[in-house]
Every structure is written in C-alpha cells, then in structure tokens.
C-alpha cells in the first residue's frame, strides 16, 4: 500500500478516537454514559442502528458472496422493513415508557429476576464470543492485504474502539457510528465508480449487468419452498421476520441505540430509517460484488484471491499441480472474456438472436472457470489443512489493494475498519450495560453513587474489549469452541423473542411459564439444529413458537406475576 | 398516533416498490 493510503487509515483511526473522547454530555451520570442522556436525535440513532448491524463481515463477506453467487442474498433482508414496523408498534413503546437501561431489565418488571438474569447472561455469553468473530474475521483478511500480523490488525480494530467506548460511552458510540456510516456508504459508491470506469470502453453498466445476469447472478427472487435452503423468498420473508424482530427488538446492542432518543416517536423514526434504507444499501453492497465479477471477466483474475495462499501454493510441495491448474485457469478465463465480448457486442448491436447464443456460450465458459477455481480451493484446503478456507472473503480487499487508485485504497480500507468498529463499539457498550445494570447493580451493589457505577462500567467495557480481542487473536485455536458458542447463540435468538412475545402479548403468561418456555424453546432449537437439515433462519421461528406454546401451557398451572403497587 | 401510522404506511408502500424494482431488475437483466 502507498504511504498516502497508510496516512488516510491512520488519520481515520486517530479521528475516531478523538471524536469519541470529546463526547462528554452528562457523562458523569449513568444515564449520560449508557443512554446518551436520552438526548440523541432520531437520525443519529437511526444511522447508529444501521452501522451496528452492518459489520465488516458484510463489507468483505457479502461482496465476495455476490462475486461468487450473485444477488440472491438480498432475499435475507426482505422482511426487515416489516420487522421494523412490528417493533415500532410493540416493543419500542414498551421499552421507552418502562424507562429501562436494558431490554432484560423489562423482563424482571414483567416476570421475575431469574428470567432477567438468564436472558442477560445468555446475551453476555453469546455476544462476547460473537464479538471475537466480528473482530477476527476482518482482522484475518486485513492482515493479508495490509501485510501485518493478525494480532496487529485485530488490535488496530479493537483498541481504538474500546478506548472511545470506554471513555465516551454511548454518545461516543452513536456519533462515531454516524461518521462511520457515512464513510462506509462513500466507500461503496467509490467502489462502484472505480468498477464501472474499469470496464472496457464498449461495455456499459447495462451490458455488464446483462453479462452477470447470464450466469444467474442477477437473481433476486427464489420462490422455491425448501426448508434446507437459507436464501429463498420464503425464508427471507417469514423466518427472517422472526430473526429481525429478535435482533432489533431484544438484542441489547440494538435496543440501546433507540433508547437514547428523547421520545417514543423519535425511537420509532430511528428504526424506520433502516426500514427505508436497509434493502437499497444491501443492494448496493451486492452490486459491488456483481460488478467485481464483471470486472474480472474482462481483467484476468488471480485464481486465488488470497495472495498469501497463492504464494504458498506456487512455492509449496504441490507447486506443479498448482501450476497446471493455473495454466488451465488462464485458458478458461481467456475463453470466458472472448464469450463476454461477443455477448456485449451483440447487446450493443441489438442482435437478440446472437445475444442468446453468446449468453449460453458465456455461461458454459464461466462454469468452466468456476470448476477450476473449486479444484484450486480443494488443493489449498488439502495442502494447508484449513478445511474452512473461503477465498471469497479476499475478493473485495484484493480488488481494493490491486486495482483502486491511491487514496481510494485508504478510503476503502478505512471503510472496512469503520464497518467493524461501528459494530464492535455498540456491542461493547451493550455488554458493559448488561454486566453493570443486570448483574452488578442488581445483585452485587444495589446502592452506590453514579461515579462508582461509572468506574465499574468503564472497567466492564475495557474487560469485554480485552476479552473479545483475546478471542479474536486466538480465534483459529478456539475455532470449534467459538462455533459451539455461536451455534448456542443462534438457539437463543428465536427463543428470546418468544419470551418478549409472552411478556407483552399475553397478560396470562406467568414468570415460571416464561422461564420454562425459554428453556424449552432453546432445547427445541437445539434438537432441530442437530437432528434436521432445516436452514438456520427457520430455527428462529421454531424457538419463538416453542417458547410461546410451552410458556402458555405452563402459565395455565402456575401463579401470575406479583403486580407492582 | 396518526403521524406514526402514516410513517408505517409509507414504509409498506416503499417496501412494495423496492421489491417490485428488484423483481424487474432480475427480469430485465436475466
């Protein structure tokens, strides 16, 4: 990378820490630190909601996925606007009026302390481990493209974020999120501009998208009903509705975003911002991936996008096999380019008959290229022993560092940092809030000054930052453990939503009903996840329905909650 | 309440428009 790009990244990191640290409005009080003194405008909270949800995995993984598989991932987000409407009518007013710090605090008021403690504990366990992945995934990819160690990139992401979150609290999280979101969107538009300008002069955007369309990469709707397929119209509208209601309505990292607004209406507006903008934004992310595919149809792509693996393979024991694959790959990509050029010409000339034939030819050539790449990937997995290696995560970063102009490289790498940091900061603040409010203040020190709680909160933020960084650095050794915890976390999402449905939808639901229902829901998801092939999105439905049904049955035979006077 | 519900109606209308646009995108470019 050019020194100019390094400077841009350094300026970005220093700017974020400085900007976060100067947010001090009523930061000597708990409400100022955890809830931004409930004075954050709706649009800032709304951008913060979006920035929290969009992690570096979206920037890097989703663009790569679109490169390989096209737009079909967009279906995952179809239910999001509806989830936001449901939440703005149900949970948002409840949380706001209850004047709570955490979503789980509300559960004690409605049910009892054990339901609150269990949900908050499950949140702490699953989120802290997931946070390790949120740091390690971009750290691994950035280490390759920036030529640094994984530890260095993980610390470059985590330390500045932990610093401004520790000292600036939720105000720092929100206002840095706003700037990070602007940077991310600017970066994505810059990527589109560079990609379009990098196409051959006789290939316009329309032809480019037709070329992508010929391989099925412009598919945005898959109406097949298959419970084992993750991305279909039905999983995206029905199953994902449960996931999004749970994530935006019951995950502290999101609930805390809109608890910072002064009124219920502003909280609603902040959520509805995602309802308006999330699908268009995700379309933009996926279009970047699709345009990269077309770019690499006309510009010879590397067979592997991870330059470290490519070098290892060229110099390793299987170098001869790899070289033979590379020769076949070069031939296949050249034929694919010729077929695409034919297709673009037919398109410009309006020759529909020839365009159809050229499209079929192009599709065949593209399948050849993909088949050779698959062979290369299995060769890497055999040689390195890294069975989970996924080259698509390296497509976008490698494209950035190889083909983007000086300056834009720095902007884009900073945007990947921004995407990671905006998610991490919100998670850290949420972990700290749940630790202090749901455990420390509830069980250890119910009475103390705000100054005392603030010291503990900063320590808690620092502790979780350190914990997540350690998980991130040792992610490769902890691989199976993290997977287990994340799987466990996915059992939790739908079930947690079920508890909140019981809380606000069914006055008859009792504390014991909710507690037993939660455990039953998680067990049901555990069974479904381990003994069926049903795609993970549907587990959210299983969990929520199981909690409500079992919870109501148990409620019939158990005493109701004590009502506060 | 009216203000909130008109915001929600706007979201639903825009949601349908966006889905229709994505469907047309698929059909036009495939």
- How many distinct beta strands of chain A? 0
Low-confidence segments of chain A, ≥5 residues, pLDDT <50?
none
> pLDDT average of chain A, as an integer?
91
- Give the mean pLDDT of chain B: 88
Rg of chain B is: 13 Å
Q: What is the compact description of this entry?
A:
The complex is a heterodimer of chains A (565) and B (30). By secondary structure, chain A is an all-alpha fold. Chain A has helices at 3-21, 30-35, 42-53, 56-69, 80-89, 91-98, 103-110, 113-146, 150-197, 205-214, 233-250, 252-258, 264-298, 307-315, 319-349, 352-384, 395-403, 408-444, 450-473, 475-505, 511-531, 537-556.
What does this structure look like?
The complex is a heterodimer of chains A (565) and B (30). Chain A is mainly alpha-helical and 565 residues long. Helix content of chain A is 79%, strand content 0%. Chain A has helices spanning 3-21, 30-35, 42-53, 56-69, 80-89, 91-98, 103-110, 113-146, 150-197, 205-214, 233-250, 252-258, 264-298, 307-315, 319-349, 352-384, 395-403, 408-444, 450-473, 475-505, 511-531, 537-556. The N and C termini of chain A lie far apart (65 Å). Chain B has one helix and no strands. Chain B starts with a helix and ends with a helix. By secondary structure, chain B is mostly helical. In chain B, 93% of the residues lie in helices and 0% in strands. At the A-B interface, helix 5, helix 10 and helix 13 of A face helix 1 of B.
